[in-house]
Amino acid sequence: MRWPTPSVRRVAVVAVAGTLLVSGCTSAGGSGDDLQVVANPTAAVAATSPEPSAEPAGRVLAQRAEVTTLATSGGTLAVALAEPASVLLYDLDDLTAKPRSVELPAPAEELTPADGELLASLPGAGKLARIALPSGEVRTVDIKGKPAATAVRDGRTLVAVRDRKAVEVLDGDRAATTITGGLYSADDVLVAGDATLVLDRLRTAVFTVDVEDGSIGEGLRAGDGATNAVVDSYGRVLVADTRGDSLLAFGTDPLLLRQRYPVPGGIYGIAYDAKRHLVWVTLTERNEVVGFDVRGGEPTEKFRLPTVRQPNSVTVDERTSRVVVGSAAGEGIQVIAL
């Protein structure tokens, strides 16, 4: 298959984006919903990885448990495990040292660094865990429903609550506002400059969120099966379209699909290196991690490296630009220095 030239591809994408812009107040299952892909949508998931055909780049820290998510904050690498449900806190300056283990009431789906602590979303327990760094002291906050992801805006914690199709706004640890409207699921919440957005995996769409007004705004289709997203230094939201084998870039003022770049191989995990302006994505069908420079008119591939099997999660050490990949098949934690 021959891809169109970059200029043609971008023009086509913007034209499609304009036709799929709808209000967030469209009712789920209602008629005339341009964002609904099929009658009974299901969320895209990571493709199953084959046995690795190459040695993973960098070094691999042994870990037999499934890694569910990763994050770095300052000099700490946080690795969430499925069994036992916990977070391991590694010293990034001495990865040979034994990590501190923090027990959790359920596995963490996402870790978000925030003001000297990590916010861990625990959908299986209906809780948000606040993990102090570097001590590892933990306290939990009850969330009605299944919290999938968090973000912080103006000192308030925003929680995407998947099953309630809502964004919960916490003032401290108290639920102050619940924002709903037009979502099929709330799977991630992102703060990009002055904009707040929520990712809906079932509708495979992104929606704006007016936190002050307490409403869900306009939405755009995000490919054929959006899974994970991150914000770059330019205020764009970069989305992994797993079913569509594409990396998407959305502008937020206004909400508009700016780029759609083909990335075959089961794109899934995504992270951003603000120092080098690189977005890193994992390809689970190929056991690879790929780094794209996103400063230009379209992504430019800079790195392609072999990984551990089932590389569902990736993060970047903001101090050194080291890339960390987690295996969801119990084959370790991969640390790559470039």
Task: Kindly list the characteristics that best describe this protein.
single chain, mainly beta, Methylamine Dehydrogenase, Chain H, 5-stranded antiparallel beta sheet, 4-stranded antiparallel beta sheet, 4% helix, disordered N terminus
Would you kindly provide a written description of the structure presented here, covering whatever features stand out?
The protein has one helix spanning 6-19, and strands at residues 22-23, 59-61, 67-73, 76-81, 86-91, 100-103, 110-114, 117-122, 127-132, 138-142, 147-153, 156-161, 166-171, 174-180, 188-192, 195-200, 205-210, 215-221, 226-231, 237-241, 246-252, 255-262, 267-273, 278-283, 288-293, 300-306, 313-316, 323-326, 333-336. Mean pLDDT is 91; it is low at 1-19 and 25-31. A 5-stranded antiparallel β-sheet has the order 1-18-17-16-15. A 4-stranded antiparallel β-sheet has the order 2-29-28-27, with no helix packed on it. It has a 4-stranded antiparallel β-sheet with strand order 3-4-5-6, with no helix packed on it. It starts with 5 loop residues before the first helix and ends with a strand. With 338 residues, the chain is mainly beta. It is globular, with a radius of gyration of 19 Å. It has one domain (59-336): YVTN repeat-like/Quinoprotein amine dehydrogenase (Methylamine Dehydrogenase, Chain H), CATH 2.130.10.10.
Brief rundown of the structure:
The chain is mainly beta and 338 residues long. It has 1 helix and 29 strands. The protein has one domain (59-336): 7 Propeller (Methylamine Dehydrogenase, Chain H), CATH 2.130.10.
